[in-house]
């Protein structure tokens, strides 16, 4: 499979790229600084690095050219990079007739158990006083819902660095009850597996231990 990855230099994205390369897939990653992934590229000939920016329509199109599926592990970056990038990614996917995208979001955009009709970040379930990041991910969720693509939004809770531990729980639309954390390793493992599954097609998937 030819897989295009956005956010491949991030904590989860780097692991996602390594998983796909391990399994023999061809990976094309759009990165601002190719040197951050040069060691991975040297080890895996299946990795192609595209130097550019996710807010450039041309760079996004080049990255998606020839792709069978897309993974986004883009973060909010404290600004609007996420919401500036996603319209370009989805437009190019539709134009190039690429249907499958798996994106990593946040547990804040899962549905609230205690306040029906609200997302977690909008409800008393959220302990965060700042909601900007969740609002960015919410905007991405709306774009995905309107895209007509075969999307899955993976929504981890608190995300410490660490290898895959296994034994995590998953739930459609909601955060598993009393879930408090999940490592970057397990988040990447779960997100990668969704490329080959229809279980959470056009749905949000909450994951936590």
Structural class: alpha/beta
Give the overall silhouette. Answer: globular
Total count of helical runs of at least 4 residues: 6
C-alpha termini separation: 30 Å
The CATH class, by name, is Alpha Beta
Instruction: Give the DSSP E fraction (strand runs of 2 or more residues).
Output: 15-25%
- Helix percent reads 25-40%
Number of domains: 1
Would you identify the CATH H-level superfamily?
Answer: NAD(P)-binding Rossmann-like Domain
- Give the integer mean of the pLDDT values: 96
What fold name stands as the CATH topology? Answer: Rossmann fold
Please tell me the CATH architecture by its name: 3-Layer(aba) Sandwich
Strand numbers in spatial order across the main sheet: 3-2-1-4-5-6-8-7
Summarize, please.
This protein is of the alpha/beta class and 209 residues long. It has helices at 11-22, 38-43, 57-64, 81-96, 132-147, 184-194; strands at 2-6, 26-31, 47-51, 69-72, 100-104, 150-156, 169-172, 203-208. The protein has an eight-stranded mixed beta sheet with strand order 3-2-1-4-5-6-8-7, with helices on both faces.
Q: How is this structure best described in words?
A:
The chain is of the alpha/beta class and 209 residues long. Helix 2 links the parallel strand 2 and strand 3. The two termini are 30 Å apart. It is globular. An eight-stranded mixed sheet has the order 3-2-1-4-5-6-8-7, with helices on both faces. It has helices at residues 11-22, 38-43, 57-64, 81-96, 132-147, 184-194, and strands at 2-6, 26-31, 47-51, 69-72, 100-104, 150-156, 169-172, 203-208. The protein has one domain: 3-Layer(aba) Sandwich (Rossmann fold). Helix content is 33%, strand content 20%. The mean pLDDT is 96.
């Amino acid at each position: 499979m030819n897989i295009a990855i956005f956010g491949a230099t991030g904590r989860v994205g780097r692991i996602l790229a390594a998983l796909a390369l391990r399994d023999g897939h061809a990976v094309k990653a759009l990165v601002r600084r190719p040197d951050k992934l040069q060691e991975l590229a040297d080890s895996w000939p299946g990795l192609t690095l595209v130097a550019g920016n996710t807010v450039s329509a041309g760079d996004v199109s080049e990255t998606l050219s020839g792709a069978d599926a897309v993974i986004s592990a883009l973060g909010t970056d404290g600004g609007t990079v996420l919401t500036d990038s996603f319209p370009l990614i989805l437009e190019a996917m539709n134009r190039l007739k690429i249907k499958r995208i798996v994106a990593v979001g946040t547990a804040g955009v899962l549905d609230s158990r205690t306040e029906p009709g609200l997302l977690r970040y909008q409800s008393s379930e959220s302990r965060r006083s700042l909601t900007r990041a969740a609002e960015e991910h919410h905007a991405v969720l709306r774009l995905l819902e309107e895209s007509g693509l075969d999307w899955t939004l993976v929504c981890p809770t608190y995300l410490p660095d660490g290898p895959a531990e296994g034994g995590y729980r998953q739930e459609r639309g909601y955060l598993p009850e009393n879930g408090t954390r999940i490592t970057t390793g397990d988040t990447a493992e779960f997100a990668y597996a969704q490329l080959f599954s229809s279980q959470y097609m056009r749905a949000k998937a909450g994951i936590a231990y």
